């Protein structure tokens, strides 16, 4: 039997605030109505992707976020026309390819002098200071 706030198809009645979290009874009605849909079925049994899926019911109703929380509780949230719906539908994050990271690391390493470069820089600075001091001594005599 559908909840008082849902249609016989397990969807919220018009006029509710968005986002709208389904009650446990509404979730049960929703699962009974849509568990045979491939999107719902796959998510219920694989729980992948971990961040949930966006389901658009076939009746032309908006967008529902389906997800399991860390304790394994299933949630259905009406996110019709919310930006979260577009974010969840994006492909999962993929780190940049390793060639980019290698290029950045090489650039950083090129900024840090090697021990030989540091030694030659210290030697040049020491010679310049020595010449300056010798100049000061010779000038005072």
Overview of this protein structure:
With 141 residues, this protein is an alpha+beta fold. The chain has two domains: 20-89, no CATH class; 98-140. Helix content is 48%, strand content 11%. The chain is built from five helices and four strands; from the N terminus they run E-H-H-E-E-E-H-H-H. It has a four-stranded antiparallel beta sheet. Strand 2 (53-55) and strand 3 (64-68) form a beta hairpin.
Helix and strand pattern: EHHEEEHHH
What is the 3D form?
rod-shaped
Please bin the fraction of helical residues: 40-55%
Distance between the termini: 109 Å
Number of strands: 4
Strand content: 5-15%
**Contiguous runs where pLDDT drops below 50 for at least 5 residues:** none
What is the element layout, followed by pairings?
Elements: E1 20-21, H1 24-34, H2 38-46, E2 53-55, E3 64-68, E4 74-78, H3 83-89, H4 98-111, H5 115-140
Antiparallel strand pairs: 1-4, 2-3, 3-4
Give the tags.
single chain, 141 residues, alpha+beta, 4-stranded antiparallel β-sheet, 4 strands
Write a brief structural summary.
With 141 residues, the chain is of the alpha+beta class.
